[in-house]
Amino acid sequence: MRWLYYNRSSHAEASQHDQVLRRIDLWWxxxxxxxxxxxxxxxxxxxxxxxxxxxxxxxxxxxDLMWEFGPAVNGRGHRLVxxxxxHSELRPLAAExxxxxxxxxxxxxxxYRLAETAQNTLPMVQARTGVDISNVTAAVxxxxxxxxxxxxxxxxxxxxxxxxxDAAFVTTESVLGELAMDRWVGVIRVVDSSTEVEHGQRFLSxxxxxxxxxxVQESLISQLPSEPYAALVEDGQWAVLKLQPTDAADYPERxxxxxxxxxxxxxxxxxxxEAPFFSERYSRCGETFCYLKIDGSDLSGMDYQDREDxxxxxxxxxxxxxxxxxxxxGTGLRYTYAELALTDVxxxxxxxxxxxxxxxxxxxxxxxxxxxxxxxxxxGMHEDTPPPPE
Length: 390
Known about the structure:
This protein is of the alpha+beta class. Helices cover 34% and strands 21% of the residues. The protein is built from 11 helices and 14 strands. Helix 10 (307-319) packs antiparallel against helix 11 (345-358). It is globular and about 70 Å long.
């Protein structure tokens, strides 16, 4: 279900959205009534089934919303994290749940797990995975697609390498925090002391993991252009990429793409990578990378003479109002694509829809997003545009 860009003029979508909002408010009402019980449970002066209570009330909003309680970080009290974990498409919903939380003394609410100290991480990893990480060291390095790779080294690996990886994963999320884990961490490897150290690789104690990771992240960001793509696109090194799609009745995302013209080949590769994509790894100017997908199976009613004519209209719509720019285009077995870097998504949506409607683009035309957090979101170019193929 799309959350941010649902069709407010659709009775079905608006009703569904309102029902979820009501479930969110009912959850917070129940939570407010139960804070004394929660406090008693955490003080171990009362026993009751917290997991069942959370399932009945919080997960009534959505079953894939997970939760974690802990001590407050900005004062005395408790914190509650509400997170969809690997279900990135639910991030907008989780953010909405936390945003609608009432102010309550002694409580803090977050939609990402926070970073913990290495000292607090050791017993937590032991409890969750059964693996001792007290003598583990870690190496940090820049990886593919502006991500950051980690290597965890034991003197001797646990009996199961899978257990070692689980411990490394939990350690990463705990020490770096869930936000950095989701958006910046690339490959995680586990090795023992017999593994040859790569050139320039330095293994550090876990209390040095976060500051070192933060330094590498800052270095990657500092290497990004200081100006938005609109100021750079004309002088970019354009390339043509060719792919080999498989014939199908229809195509989700960009599965039918044959050729792609782009001003940034690495950015395109990152959007096709199995790892989640996030725009902040490729822009420090707040740009959102997205694409138009237009059904080319029947263009008989379209007023634009060809794709170049349509792209020029899109370019004028966004660049003329300084809302972003066109950074690439593509041709698929069925669909035509236009890649965009937008600095103001909401205003750009209005401008793009206007010019594409004026050009009578097919009913099955959408604006879609590369960011993992926005993967469930879409904007139809017409009021009666159906959902994109899944």
